[in-house]
Fold these 2 entries.
Entry 1:
Amino acid sequence: MNDVTTPQATSPVPKLARHRIDFRGNASEYFGIWIVNVVLTLLTVGIYSAWAKVRRKRYFYGNTFLDGHSFEYHARPIRILQGRLVAVAIIILFNLVVEFFPIFGLVVFLVYAFALPFIINMGLRFNARMTSYRNVRFNFAGSYWEAFIAFILLPLAALLTLGLLIPVMSQVTATYIAKGYRYGTAPFAAKPLIRAYYGVFFRAFLFAILVAALIGGAVALVLVATDGMFAGAVVVAILTFYLTIIPAAIFYAAGTRNVIYNALALDNRHRFESTLKPLRYVWIIVSNFFVTIATFGLMRAWAAIRSTRYIAARTAVLISGTVDDYVGEIESDTGVAAAEYMDLEGFDLGF
Amino acid sequence: MPGALTISPDGKPVRRYADDELTTISDRVGAIPRRLTFTDGTVFETEDNAGIDRLLSERLAASETFLSRLEVFHPRLIIIALIAIGLVYGTVRYALPVLANMAAAVTPTPVVKLIDRGALETIDRAFLKPSTMVQSRKDEIHAGFAALAPHADADKVGLQLLFRDGGIIGPNAFALPGGTIIMTDQLVRLAGSDDEIFGVLAHEIAHVENRHSLRQIYRSLGVAALIAMIGGDTGEIVEDVLAQGSLLLTLSYSRRFESQADQRAVDLMKAVGRDPAALATMLERITAKCRDCGKTSWFTTHPGTEGRSEAIRQRARK
């Protein structure tokens, strides 16, 4: 899978130059931006959150440097606000119908299942087009039915097989997103091995068992010591489940990110490299969580910078020759509602 | 910046742009590179934020640089952070309850009825079983309930009493926002007298009357929205966990709601000529019983035991 250092003999490929992603954001600077965002969002009853999002994303993108140039986020706040309003209206409508007309539940579910691939494609396209590097915008070209397989059929199959097909789902989804992405007009492509995904899955599973044993034991001990008794069993089970499944999911996310990045290529020439250490990443996210809680949210800015910096430091692009010759197309910013819908519903599909 | 701008990387002029060819200059965010876009699509990028700000000082109004000046790491941020904390506290403590009460007040009755139907379906499936109590006993309680109901304002919305086997939730009673009151067989069996049962029912009727559960639902929805607004950055777990946690709180009433319902229950019991202090006895009974029934009792959803029995007896004596 990692044949980065062995260029194919068929084409005269120039030497790959390794450029590490350089994240230059720092916690004190971001703290100011973040806390002003919070205050203005609260004072405007949430309306400012669209402007807040744009400033936040511009800060993170603008501080992400590759080969001396930073990325840029271009979305206009007013469009984000419009998209968000449409997305909220759809979510409310959807929930009201399900809540009050359970009879139509199946119909609504089917409509949703068939609309979702379309929404995801639009959202991916919006987010890609709003991102640029060296004045060349990214783009995303989706396919409805491939999205349907990746985001509807395979999650269902994974559910029905009690999670056994999760690696297949991850592989298909990541491959689909990768090959839809464009830098200007140059396509991305990736052929990650399903075997690699199962490898990560297996390690995440072992990690989960270890965590469950440790946490379950600790919680049970505390409860026995404090005479928790009967209700204890239920509480231990629920607590252990959450405290296990969350770190395991983070572990899996880090591992699969490595797999897809290491299999990714831009324009058949430039390669990517991700060397996250899953355990280290779990530690960063989990400790971020507790630090944020312990400081009543005030260290949230520091936590966000910390995890971003770690991811950047462990990501590199292997540039073959130069990236000077890519040209962009003028892109419109349609699909903002879909992107906001994905945001609100917690889809996290970006790179 | 009247006149022209010459772009000359490495001191070597490449192209000269007239002032009106400059279309946009990106706002300052932290120290990220600034971008000057020209009509021909060319973008000039520089990390010299101070230089750009100097160039712009004559052309931009103070309001346009207000944000980036406010955001600079400066002791002033301590004040902004304090304002943020105050705003969050004020929103949760004062604004949300008021908004939740308003939302609860304007929610039409048919909508609330539909919430009941959905909620009942869910809890029936999740942890309740059909009641195994004999019909004659149910009829007795229904008769007493029918006498109690007309004294409550909530009777207008139509109160309905249902019996269920509580399963793991044991001796329990709860009110859904639309007037559906559920009592478990275990609670009926635990009661020392009928008045104790009706005391609990009066308490639940009071919750319906004041739309307590609806207000609670709106409050926790508000808290979840607030967390999403504040956190809303990199998809880390903090927001998710906190939002889920606040929704779990939907299940329990606040202490204020409890004492309000207790007081109202005493009045209702007096109105039908039953022993108003029986509710206090029942509370103590559940407390005693639940030393070994752990965290799934009536008290997880009806908090604040200390002093409650005392307050009930006090009002009953009046």
Entry 2:
Amino acid sequence: MRAWLWISTVAVLGCGGPVAFQGQSTLPVTGTPPPAVAEAKPPPRVEVRDNKIEIHDKIQFDYDQATIRPESSGLMNEIASVIHKNPQIKKLRIEGNASAEGSPQHNQKLSEDRARSVMKYLTEHGVAAGELVSIGHGADRPIADNASEAGREQNRRVEFVILEQDVTHKKVEVDAQTGVEKVVDENHEVVRAADADAGEQQAGKPGAKSPTAPATTARKKGG
Amino acid sequence: MTMTRMSTWLAAGVVASAAACAGTARAPEAYRDDTSKLLETRTAQLQQCYGDALKTDARLSGTVTVQFVVEPKTGAITQPSVDHGKSTAPPVLGDCVVKAVDGLTLAPPDRHEGRATFVYEFTPNPAPAS
């Protein structure tokens, strides 16, 4: 027994111990991350659509006043920016609308004042006064039911109607072989809205009255 | 113990030793290089594991220092473990390495046990455009 132990010891010692070693250099591993998901752009709050500048937000005014609230400054600046970026717009009508809450006279006045207030803001932010007119419709043009507060809130709004804009018509031929487009005919025309001459107030003439505006200046809560 | 008897036992010891030490005996550099080549066979698996990890965090990167034993006679890689003190990558990448190297077998096996240390470096490619 002792003999076999001795033989094993000789065998192990003769074979040597473990070999320690390290990699000569780092082993590179690369990986491809998943495609970066492009951040979804929020839909524009302000966009030109046919004969309108649509705002998917609301200009906020002080209660029963024509003062634009500070939180709407961003939206107002965006509207000014869109007008600047669309030089084809030659004339724009700012239309104030009120809910049926309150007297018709008061709502008429409030809607005119608010439209005028928006017009003033835009002219103070670089929009040419000659391009803007304003008008108040009072509660005459509801888009929702005035019986509910939600409906009345929808009815209190300001809209932007393009009265005149340059339109360019192009006739293009596409080369069947190269796919290159070639303009063979181009002409411009000024498109005017059918009611472009409806009663309105010109920017820079605050004293002007809408023909539909009542003579009274009595202020009651409403709009 | 007589002289004759002692000679007999010594001879038996030499024979036993020779039997125990049979097989390839690599120099340390050759042991390292052969093991390194063996590890490279799992590169694709590592890249797959890394790619999966990048899905949860596209910025994962760093080094993983792994230690393991190469069994004598069988060549099997066993006891893989991450040396966290010498690694900068998050544990999930250490797991990738351990899974990748475990079960590999060096062929031909070496008569000596190998005690290996390797360092992996994980680097993300630029994210492809969506």
